[in-house]
Each structure stands twice: as C-alpha cells, then as structure tokens.
Write a structure and sequence with these properties.
By secondary structure, the protein is an alpha+beta fold. The protein has 2 domains: about 240 residues, 3-Layer(bba) Sandwich (FAD/NAD(P)-binding domain); about 150 residues, Helicase, Ruva Protein, domain 3 (Orthogonal Bundle), CATH 1.10.8.50. The protein contains 11 helices and 21 strands. Strands 13-16-15-14-17-18 form a 6-stranded antiparallel barrel. Strands 7-2-1-11-20 form a 5-stranded parallel sheet, covered by helices on one side. Helix 4 crosses helix 5 and helix 8 crosses helix 10.
Length: about 400
C-alpha cells in the first residue's frame, strides 16, 4: 500500500511516520524546502510542543468539537509525544501550566526530532506544490508542479490559513472541497484583540497574574495569566485564548475587563491602598502608586480614575479610593475587532468533522482519504494543545492509512 501525505508540519510528519511504521510505503510532499517551517516560529521560537496533562484535562481546553478528538487523544497522548522527542534526541522540560518545551529552548530541535522519527521509518521526502488530487477507481492521482504520484491513500495535512508565509495558505481546503468535502467558516483564532480605546501609551507593557474577563454574566469567559498591550489593543496568552472563545459570536462592542489584583477583593484592596497611602503620606497622588502598579501603567490609571494627580495623597477621599479600587479590579475596555485570520496561531474552522470518522480520520465521503491537524474543524486554547492535536490526529490517520486497523 502506498500513501501520499500532503504537508510537512507536525500533523504530516507524524502521519507519514506512523503510516510507514505500519508498513505503508509513504511519500511526504512539502511545498517548502524544509518540513516543519511553522514549528520553527511557535512559542516565540521555543515551541510549546504539548501539554503534560491527562487526555480528559486536555479535552477541556479544546474549543471546537472536543468530542471528535476523544479517540485521537487517547490513541496518542502528550506522554507519547514526549517519548518520541526524547527517543529522537530532544530532551524536554515542563513549565508553568504544564506547558512542555524542548530543554534547549530551540524549536528547531523539535522539528529535527520529528523529521528523524519519520526518516527512520523510511518516509520519502519530496518537495512540491500539490495542485490537484483525483481518484480514479481505487487509485489516487496526486498532481504537483513537479510530477504526478499514484497511490492507494492520501492524507491531507496542509494546515489552515494562519501564517501563510509558512505554507499554510488554504490550498488544503481547496483540495478537500474538490474531493467533495465541506469546509466550515474560517475565523481568526488565538489572535490579538483590538480595542476601541486608545492604548498606544501602554504599548509593550506586559502584565502577569491578571484575570481577564470578556463578556458579561453567563455569556462571559475568564482567563488567568499573562497579557500585554499592543498599539491597537491587547495580546498575550490569556488574550489569545479569549479570542478563540468569542470568535464565533458578534464580539464587536463586547466589554473586556482586566482585574489587576485578582487575589484581593475590593475591601482587602482598599486596605492595601490605605497602607500605601500611609507609606507615602507626604507625597502627591501620582507618586503613591509605585508599590501597587507597574510604573508605565500609573499615568493611565490616574487618568482613568479622574483623581487629580497632584492632590496630596492624604487628601484622597474614601469615594476616590473606591473609584481607584474598582478600576484596579476592572480596568474596562470595549472590543472593536479581532486580529486577522492570517495572524492567528491556528485556524478556527476547516473540514466539517461530521464528514470524517473520528476513530480513523478517514473521510466518510472518499474511501482512502484522510485528514489531520488544522485541516480539521478543531482548535484549542494556548498551552501546547494545538500541536498535540496535530500529532494525535496525524497518528490516527497514519496508522489507519498504513493498514493498522486494530
């Protein structure tokens, strides 16, 4: 049995290796000169490759179609990912939030390990741009700009549309549609959030241990962790996750609240403010917040509070303190837009999972056609979950295309 895998990202590398280890003659076609180009830029070049949690905990972090991934994540777990990396020369470490990185902090080491794993399995690497896939009877014809391949099965692992410079430009979706599949609406996921308010003065400010709430009441989402301000709004881990949680609703005009002191309720925070005011009792208000806030944030908070910055701190009233405390507990903004889909760390949307067998990743429409990774309408929060999804779905697609139906 001969299998052609289209796409050399984590999903394609795992799919091709798994297929070859099951005895399938496997060719991997990648449009770039080297496979794994997108892996090189993930995690700011460090590559948060997976998350050291149980499959059950993992599925709680999946935003779109978590039930579809149940079989894949139990078939190939985060522990399996670590074992493959370690056995192919890449040591790993676990950081806060169970995020797994290469010990070297080099994303290139992750790519090298997966490429080595595939090469040792006997995968043949070819460079080319797949322009057409046609099935005649039981045989697929895979046409590239260089040559044509004939095979018994095809695995589409072309990625989505995020970071098109890495090769994920949406061509995989065109190939899937041409083979009879439907592709759900493509939306930005894990992207910065743009705000109505002007926050240019805060650009570059990074905040840790904050709580961010998007929306109101039952229709709200809260994330705790790190974030940063950009020229147009906000970004960072908690913001990226929030973007994926709201990208399917009408998010324009939605409130975004940053709790700068999530460990303190308003009463406790007021006591803390009073303590600081007492410490700086001979200072002006603008010089009394150094212990409470990052210096670059102080002018903005003072402006939003409406309290005279030159007012003696011992003259700040109880009512003004209450305004300050409320502001620190909810520095509120209004969402104007999400970053573009091309900016997304992953793509939200893809091949409709109702048309794919979740136990094998095989198409229910075209026998012998499989899907893996961002091609599928599945996505998760930040923390190593999306790369693991690519690896798990790639593993299932590869083992089944290779003939392992146990």
């Amino acid at each position: 049995m001969r299998t052609v895998v289209v796409g050399g990202g984590p999903a394609g590398l795992m799919a091709s290796a798994s297929c070859a280890y099951c005895g399938g003659q496997t060719v991997l076609i990648e449009r770039n000169e080297k496979p794994g180009k997108k892996l090189y830029i993930t995690g700011k070049g460090r590559c948060n490759v997976t998350n050291a949690c149980t499959p059950r905990e993992f599925l709680e972090k999946v935003v779109t179609n978590p039930k579809f991934l149940y079989g894949a994540l139990y078939a190939f777990t985060p522990e399996d990912t670590v074992n493959i990396l370690e056995s192919n020369g890449t040591k790993t470490k676990v950081e806060r939030g169970n995020r797994v990185f290469p010990l070297s902090d080099k994303a290139s080491d992750v790519t090298k390990a997966f490429v080595k794993y595939a090469q040792n399995a006997g995968v043949v690497f070819e460079q080319g741009n797949v322009t057409e896939i046609v099935k005649n009877g039981e045989v697929f014809r895979v046409v590239t700009n260089e040559k044509t391949y004939e095979c018994d099965s095809v695995i589409l692992a072309c990625g989505g549309v995020s970071y098109p410079s890495t090769g994920s430009n949406g061509d995989g979706f065109k190939l899937a549609k041409a083979l009879g599949h439907t592709v759900t609406a493509i939306r930005p996921a894990l992207v910065p959030i743009h705000l109505k308010e002007d926050v240019k003065s805060l650009q570059g400010l990074s905040l840790k241990n904050v709580s961010v709430t998007v929306g109101v009441g039952k229709n709200s989402y809260t994330q705790f962790g790190e974030m940063l301000f950009t020229d147009k709004g906000v970004s960072g881990p908690v913001i990226l996750s929030a973007s994926s949680l709201i990208n399917k609703i009408n998010y324009v005009g939605t409130p975004l609240c940053i709790d700068l002191k999530p460990a303190l309720d308003e009463s406790t925070l007021d006591k803390r403010i009073l303590s600081d005011f007492d410490k700086y009792k001979n200072k002006r208000f603008r010089n009394s917040l150094d212990d409470l806030l990052p210096k670059s944030l102080i002018p903005y908070i003072i402006e939003r509070s409406g309290i005279n910055p030159d007012k003696p701190v011992n003259s700040v009233s109880r009512e003004e303190r209450a305004v300050l405390a409320k502001l620190l507990k909810c520095l509120n903004f209004t969402i104007s837009a999400l970053g573009s889909v091309e900016q997304g760390i992953v793509t939200s949307g893809g091949v409709n999972v109702s048309e794919v067998n979740p136990k094998t990743m095989e198409s229910k429409i075209v026998k012998g056609l499989y899907f893996a990774g961002e091609m599928l309408d599945v996505d998760a929060l930040t923390g190593g979950f999306n790369i693991q999804i690519a690896l798990s779905t790639g593993y299932l697609a590869g083992t089944n295309a290779g003939g392992n139906y146990d």
